[in-house]
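Let us work through a complete example step by step.
Step 1: write down the sequence.
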Amino acid sequence: MVRTLRTHRRNRTAAAALVALVGTPLVLLGCKPKEEPAPPPEPAPVVQAPAPVEPARVYPDPPAPTAPTPVKFPDLQKFMVEKNKLQVYVVENHEVPLVSAQIVINAGSMDDPNLAEMTASMLGEGTKKRKKAKIDAEIEQVGSSIGEFAGIHSTYVSSRVLKRDLKLALTLMADEVMNPAFPQDALDKLKNQAKTGIKAQKQNADFLANTLFDMVAYPEGHPYGQPPQTEADIDKITQDSLAKFHDNFYRANNAYLILSGDITVAEAEPLVKKTLGKWKAFEKLEDIPKNPLNKFDADAYKSRMPTKMVVHLVDRPGSAQSEVRVGNLALARKHPDWAKVDVAQQILGGGSTGRLFLDVREERGLTYGIYTQVSSGQAPGTFRIWTKTKTKKTGEMMTAIFEHLDRMHKEDPTETEFKDAVTKLVGSFPLEIETPGQIAGKVRTVLTYNLDENYFKTYRDKVLAVTREEIKTVAAKYMHPVPVMVVVGKADKVVPQLQDAFKDMGGVEIITYDLNLKRI
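Step 2: predict the structure and record it as tokens.
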């Protein structure tokens, strides 16, 4: 009995220890367990009120443009170096102590497409007095540089310096145009670079389209419609041929100097005489090379106007898309209709507000960009529409372009289209004459295209004088219904589309070319 009680007491002691350890009373045998509490009721589902609908944002129209503020194009002053008849043009602008200087030679790719550019490039490769490194070091020491550029009509050497450094700049520029050395090692380097460029051009759809367009638009042999350069053309260039080209064109009375910026005529005269006064001139005016454009008369241009639908197609099998050009010969830069045509092409394809962009890109989704251009020329330049599209959309693109050409011929622009085009041309003009270099460029435009010396003084007045009713007339005159057409793309994919696109216009002839722009 005693043993039993001891055991029972021991069991209770162990139970108490366990309770103390876990903190929860144990249910001993024979005791009624407590009932589990009922789980709490599930909460009622929350019904969320619909989010308030914000009213659509209404963006107010931008304010109407104000009348253009007056912009005064600087006066053009000039003098001549008596010894060699070099013409000098001075445009004063004393806001900042900078001067832009340009020596312009009346010789460009229209005189020789192979030698003009190479001669210009070689001017900066050293002279008979200075190595290239010395020229570069001297001009870089005053924080500037000298550039040499050859265009269609002219070649120019330019620099922009502080007024105090103008004498140095003119000295170095004069040395380049008067005494080029044409070193053989530099010539070899530039010829190799040119050959590399020729290979790259064959893979450049944009280059192929523009080059072929000009070749087709202009009479054969015309300086504006030259075929692409070949490696054989490069191989023919020698030191002697460069020296001969230089001697034939780089003369003081076949050139002129533009000084724009913080300079006066009185300050310019002694500087020019000292640096360029010894430049050799032609002894007789009849010795000055004749303009090669003089060989082409009005009949020559008329002969190139298409009379039927013809597409000139460059077969480029690797193309992911088609490069497209549509246009025709238009007018020379000097023509009195220039401002009218400029407004008309602005309405049709002048950027993101043009009809072509708003419809062909935004509505039809045929391209990322489609624009128009009227090229400047001493002879008639070209009007062209340029764009690119997916190969499978080439036919649709052609159809869309002709729809818009037809609309330009038949419909007056809306008042909004007309005002927007005029406002853009007038409003952007001040941005084109902000710097001495820009003003010098405008002066070069005046002299290159034989414009009136006050042309840019009254430029905005010319644009503002264009009327909405004149747009349809100039479109019919300079945007031809039977244009020159060029496509660069996959011939096997493009030909069926073109045939289908033109079947309702009397059909189309397709002339195919290889990547050298030779007929296949």
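Step 3: interpret the result. The longest helix spans residues 2-22.
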